[in-house]
Amino acid sequence: MIRKVGRVARTFESAIVGTGVIAGFHAASIERLGRSRIVAAADVDAGALEAFGEKWSVPRRYPDLDALLAAESPDLVHLCTPPALHAPQAVAVLRRGFSVLCEKPPVRSLAELDTIESAASAGGAHFATVFQHRFGSGAARLRGLVGDPRLGRPAAVVCHTLWFRPDDYFAVPWRGGFDVEGGGPTMGHGIHQFDLLLSIMGEWREVVAVAVRQAKPTRTEDLSCALVTFANGAVGTVVNSLVSPREASYLRFDFEHATVELDHVYGYGDEDWTVTPAPGHEGPVGEAWAVGPAGVRSGHDAQLAAVLDALSAGMPPPVPLADTRRTVELIAAIYASAFTGRRITRGELGPDSPFYHRMDGTGAPWA
């Protein structure tokens, strides 16, 4: 909803649910952009709520989501709570007709995603997932070039999220389990990189994967490796790790006439992209890459700006449920392949599959 006075659009009103670290990213983006303001926040931790409210000058503070929804009518509700709370909280917000911007992972299963979709339809509201890496200008530029004959057909891709988390990272109660967190690095860490991959490459067709516990005190995997075939015929490797001391987030796209690479860790700018033309294609490839969006770093600022643009235009905000489903379905397929030893095709994990209801299906092999 956008409120207007005459021809002047008013500032959007946001409510933030969950006031931990990630909520600070949302609040900072709201402040920097200046197009919305935080009118309310909620958290069951009274101390965290008070500290957040004081830091960001939040005028109204509530002990839980129900109390907030009973008193407020925000334009957008930012869900910054642990993953297990996302689906029930999103359903509560959407049924009241308020739109949701939800942190990753948005759900713990395909079943939860379908429940959210039903609530969004019933309430006439929108659900968008925070996948901020889609919104850097380099990614937008490459998306516009897929299918361009100057780059040629995509053949091979690489998507590696090689991160490290110390053992004490898993001491937080909601981390390290399928029940609360939904999964390990496949679900909560690499998801950003391969969502970016999917936003560029389009539909995936099938996956073969392994997932293991190598070193970390977690009930989930700490490493997964997948071989993904895309509808356009390209083949890619997707690696999600929390056991890699030299951290890197690396994406590589090999087209017929050029290699395009992105090398960063937690966020990128235009300077993090590299284009290498094939011999004899330097001119056309250089011309293709020289035109397009520029100057926008990936991050919460970029996505929130796109969300507010969409709301201003009366359009669904990015990333909508259809896009979110493609990414969540790949996660489910990676776990299903890893835990069953089978090749998984897109669309086969329906309500009759245990991997539709839980990412670990009937249980991880080491459970």
Written account of the structure:
This protein has 367 residues and is of the alpha/beta class. It has two domains: 4-132 and 304-320, NAD(P)-binding Rossmann-like Domain (Rossmann fold), CATH 3.40.50; 134-297 and 328-345, Dihydrodipicolinate Reductase, domain 2 (2-Layer Sandwich). Helices cover 35% and strands 25% of the residues. It contains twelve helices and 16 strands. It has helices at 21-33, 46-55, 65-71, 83-95, 110-123, 137-145, 185-188, 191-201, 282-290, 300-312, 321-340, 354-357; strands spanning 4-5, 8-9, 12-17, 36-42, 60-62, 76-79, 99-102, 127-129, 154-164, 204-212, 223-230, 235-241, 243-255, 258-264, 273-277, 344-345. It has an eight-stranded mixed β-sheet. A hairpin with a 2-residue loop joins strand 1 (4-5) and strand 2 (8-9). Helix 1 crosses helix 10, helix 4 (83-95) runs parallel beside helix 5 (110-123) and helix 6 runs parallel beside helix 8 (191-201). It is globular and about 65 Å long. The termini are far apart. Mean pLDDT is 96; it is low at 1-8.
